[in-house]
Amino acid sequence: MLQLLSLSCALVAGNMPPPNPPPAVKAEEKKIVDEKKAAEARIFAATLETDLKRLWVRSSTAEWIKATYITDDTERNAAAMNEDAMAFIGQAIKKSLTYKGIKLDPETERMLVLLKVSQSLPAPSDATKRTELANTAAKLEGLYGKGKFCADGHVPGNAEADKKHCKDLSELSAVLSKVSEKKAPSYEEQYEAWRGWHETSKEMRPLFTRLVELSNEGAKEIGPKDLGELWRSAYDMSPAEFETETDRLWNQVKPLYDQLHCYVRGKLSTKYGADKVSASGPIPAHLLGNMWAQEWSNVYPMVEPYQGQPSLDVTAGLQKLKKAKKLDEQGLVRIGEKFFTSLGFDPLPPTFWERSQFTKPQDRDVVCHASAWDVTFSNDLRIKMCIKLDEEDLITVHHELGHNYYFMQYWQKPVLFQQGANDGFHEAIGDALTLSITPKYLKDLGLIETLPKDDKGVINVQMKDALEKIAFLPFGRMIDQWRWDVFSGKVPPSKYNEHWWALRLKYQGIAPAKGARGEAFFDPGAKYHIPANVPYMRYFLARILQFQFHRAMCQAAGHQGPLHTCSVYGNKAAGSKLKAMLELGASKPWPDALEVMTGQRQMDASALVDYFAPLQTWLAEQNKGQRCGWSASAGPTEPPKTEPAKAAPTKTGK
Ligand SMILES: [Zn+2]
To answer: Is the pLDDT of residue 146 over 50?
Structure first.
C-alpha cells in the first residue's frame, strides 16, 4: 500500500503536470495505478493461500482430534485454533476490500469473492464485541447440547432424580419415532415429548437476539446490509436473485408436496380423529414422527400404500451377511467405495483406511455423528462414523464418500477452491449415487432376496423415499427464510415466534397443536442449526440437485425408461461426467460446474418431479374428492388457549 502510494506521487511530481491534466493523462495515470493494485492483489492472493492453508490445516487437525477424542483440553485446543483462523480471515477480508473496483485476473477475483463469503458468522472489528459474539455463539450451541426437559415440575440438581424426571433430545425424539410401533405413544404422549423439547429453547431468545445484532454489525463492515444478505451472496448471483431462485425451485415441487401432505393428513385424521387432525387444515406439528416434522419416515407403516409386498428390509440382509462373517463395518465402506470405482474413480488412498474412525471406540468419548474429512487439504481423506450394519448407515456411507470423492478430485487446487461449486453441491453427490441403489442393485449385492414384483412394490418404495425427501423440502426452504427476515429486521424480536409459525404453516402446512405459541417461547431455537448458526439452504438445494445429477448421469449412461428405474452402477460414461464437475471444485461459478455435468446452467427440480412421477399419479388418484391444501382457519381443531395465530394468508394447494 505505502509503496504504491509513494510511487504514484513520484510519477505526478516527475511529470510536473498542469493543475488540471487533460482526461487522457488522468485515465492513463489511473490505469497505471490500477495495474499496480492488480499486481499487488495477485501477491496478496498468493500469500493468502499459504496463510489460510496453514491455519486451516491446524484447525481442521485440532477439530479431528477433538471429534475423535473429546476432552476439555481437545475442545479448548480446537477453539483456540479456530479463533486464530477467524481473526486472520476477518483481517484478510478487510484488506481484500481495498481491491474493490480494480480489474483483477479471474483467479484472484474468484479467490477474493470466496474469501468474503467464507464466514457464516462475521465478527465486528471492535474487540469487545468480537469476544461477546464468540461467547454468545458458544453459549447458544451449548444450551442446545445441554437441553433437557424435566417433567412434573422437577427442578434438576440431583443426578439420581434428574435421570428419572428429565429427558434429553434423543430420549424425547425416541418417543416420537415410535409412532408406528406396537406400543405407540398416544396423541398426548407425543405432544408432551414435543412440548418438552420446545421448552428447552426458551432461554435462548435474548442470546439469539444479541447474536443477530452483533453478526449483522460484522456483516455490514464487509459490505452487505445484514448477515442474511451475506449468506445469499455466496451463489454467484445477487442476493435478491437467489431468493427468487429458491422460490422458483420450491414452486416446481410444491404440487407434489401438497399431494403427499394431503394423503398423509387423511391417514392421520383417520387414526387420531377429525377433532385432532382436521381433514382440511394443517397437520399438528408433533404427529409426524420427527421433532421438527422435517422427515416423516417414521409414519410409513401408517401410510404404506400396499401391504404384503416383498419387504425391502436391507438391514436384515446386512445382518445376515454379518452373521455369516461375510461383512463387517469396514466392509460396508468397501461397498460404497466399490460404487465409486465402478464409475471409474480411483480407490480411496491407503491412509483413508488407516486414519478413519469406523466404529465407536470403547475407551473414550467421540462424536458419532457421521462426517467426511480431508484433514490436511491434501487427499488426507477420512470418515468418522460409529457404523452399525443397517440400511441407514449403508446410505450414510455413500453420502459421506460423496464428500470424500469430491475432496479427492480437487485437492490440488488452492484451498479456497477446495469446496463445492456451491454449498448445495457437496451434500448432493453421495445422495445422487444412492438414487442408483435400486432394488435390483440391492439384490445383486445379496442384500434382498426378491425384487418388488409389480407397480405396487414401486409405489411402496417411492412412498418411503418421499416421506424422507419430499417431506423435507418445505422445511429446508423455510428455515433460512425465517433467518433472512430476522437478520434484515423485517421481523423484530417481538415477532420471532409468530413469524416462525407463519412460515411453517405457509410452507409445511403444519401448526402447533393446542393453539398459538406466544412469544414466551423461542421455537426456532429447538432446531440445532439456529443456535449453532449453520446456514440451511444448502440442504434444500442438495435435495433438488441430487435428482438433477442423477438424471444427467442416467442420460450419460444411455438409460432408457423411467428415471426411478435407473442405476448408473458400473457405468464409466456417467462417472466421467460426474468427475468433470467435481474436479472444478469452487474454481468457477457454480452454473459452469453444473453445465459441465448436466448441460444446464440453472438448478432444476424437474428431475425430482420426473423421478416421483409414479407416486404423484398414484397420490392424485387416492386424493380424489379430498380438499387438499390447508388454510390457517382450519387449523388444529382444539380451541386455542391464547389468541389465535396470525398466520400469513396461505394459498390452498389446488
Ligand atoms: Zn454431508
So the answer is: yes
Name the residue among 298, 275, 303 with its Cα closest to residue 287.
Answer: 298
Check if 403 is active-site: yes
Which comes out higher in pLDDT, residue 330 or 19? 330
Which of 427, 502, 556, 574 is labelled catalytic? 427
**Res 651: pLDDT:** 32
**Which residues on adjacent β-strands are paired with residue 322?**
none
Question: Residue 186 phi/psi, 5° resolution?
Answer: -75, 175
b (16+ CB within 10 A) / e for 150-162: beeeeeeeeeeee
Q: Is 193 a catalytic residue?
A: no
285 is catalytic: no
Burial status of residue 520 (CB atoms within 10 A of its CB: 0-12, 13-18, 19 or more): exposed
pLDDT tops 70 at residue 653: no
Gap between the Cα atoms of 173 and 527, Å rounded = 12
In the set 192, 229, 337, 400, the catalytic residue is: 400
399 is catalytic: yes
3-state secondary structure of 149: strand
Whether the Cβ atoms of residue 195 and residue 513 lie closer than 8 Å to each other: no
Give the three cell numbers for residue 90. Answer: 476477518
* AA identity, residue 330: Q
DSSP class per residue in 320-373 = HHHHTTS--HHHHHHHHHHHHHHTTPPPPPHHHHHH-B-S--SSS----S-EEE
Residue of 261, 286, 403, 426 with catalytic role:
403
pLDDT at 64: 95
Do you know the residue count of the chain?
654
Angle value at C-alpha 522, between 516 and 527, nearest 5 degrees = 110
Give the pLDDT confidence score for residue 151 in this predicted structure: 87
- Please choose, from the candidates 52, 48, 121, the residue with its C-alpha nearest in 3D space to the C-alpha of residue 85: 52
- Other Cβ atoms within 10 Å of 182 Cβ, number: 5
Q: Domain coordinates of the chain in residue numbers?
A: 2-116
Of residues 341, 338, 305, the one with CA closest to residue 578: 341
pLDDT at 46: 96
Start-to-end C-alpha separation, the chain: 62
Average model confidence (pLDDT) for the chain? 90
pLDDT of residue 510: 97
With beta carbons less than 8 A apart as the criterion, state whether 454 and 427 touch.
no
- Beta-bridge partner residues of 511: 284
Residue 495 to residue 485: CA distance in whole angstroms: 11
The residues near 598 (Cβ < 8 Å, ≥ 6 apart) are 548, 549, 551, 552
Instruction: Respond yes or no: is residue 370 known to be catalytic.
Output: yes
Better pLDDT: 28 or 639:
28
